[in-house]
């Protein structure tokens, strides 16, 4: 019966993994947030006043709510480990960005943009856990253009039409990326890989937004496929004559 203990340990480790399409598949992961750089506009810092993040799992459509507070540029929050198909970030106040527009002034000035919420999604799902940090980029590179800005009373401003366009762009064209090295920044390699989820106005390529989102547990790693062989291996022991 000595072979029974290893088998029980193996089965216990497999049973501890949740449904591959379920919500909880691992330890918490990190969800970072930052604004994309502009064209002739440098985003130096900022506050993203989010009050709630709502994650929708891919299996049952259940929602996981994460209460939030003011998030600084490049900061973020922990998310229960899981495979999600949608995340909605709800803001309680305007985005408050610190910008530099060299064409107007080489100083840091504020710019506020009312964005009630940002939603990104992908039907194939994306993983957030202790092995998969992600980074939400508000807007896209070049979304803020220097010629749209004016400097008045110490702050940057845009006209009403441009503000509406920027608000809609942030809400519907932001993208979620794998933060492969976990540094809270998007490097060329991570951007080249492409987003794992995006707003409704972003058309993902076939190779984008698709990742092996199944947890690397027993059922997905192929361990159970070898179960009969393990059973035979543990049960078969050559008999040797006793001297």
% residues in beta strands: 35-45%
What's the number of extended β-strand segments? 14
Characterize the overall form. Answer: elongated
Taking all Cα atoms into account, the compactness measure Rg is 24 Å
Treating each run of at least 4 consecutive H or I residues as one helix, how many helices?
Answer: 5
- How far is the first residue's CA from the last residue's CA? 23 Å
Walk me through the structure.
The structure is a single chain. The protein has 243 residues and is of the alpha+beta class. The protein folds into 2 domains: 1-17 and 217-243, no CATH class; 27-212, no CATH class. It has 5 helices and 14 strands. It has helices at 4-15, 160-173, 188-193, 218-221, 227-235, and strands spanning 29-35, 42-57, 63-67, 70-72, 76-79, 82-91, 95-101, 105-113, 117-128, 134-138, 150-152, 155-157, 175-178, 197-198. The strands form 3 sheets. Strands 2, 3, 4, 6, 7, 8 and 9 form a 7-stranded antiparallel β-sheet that branches. Strand 11 and strand 12 (155-157) form a beta hairpin. The longest helix is centred in the C-terminal third of the chain and has 14 residues, at 160-173. The chain is elongated, with a radius of gyration of 24 Å. The model is unreliable at 3-24 and 208-243 (pLDDT under 50).
Brief description of this entry?
The chain is an alpha+beta fold and 243 residues long. The chain is built from five helices and 14 strands.
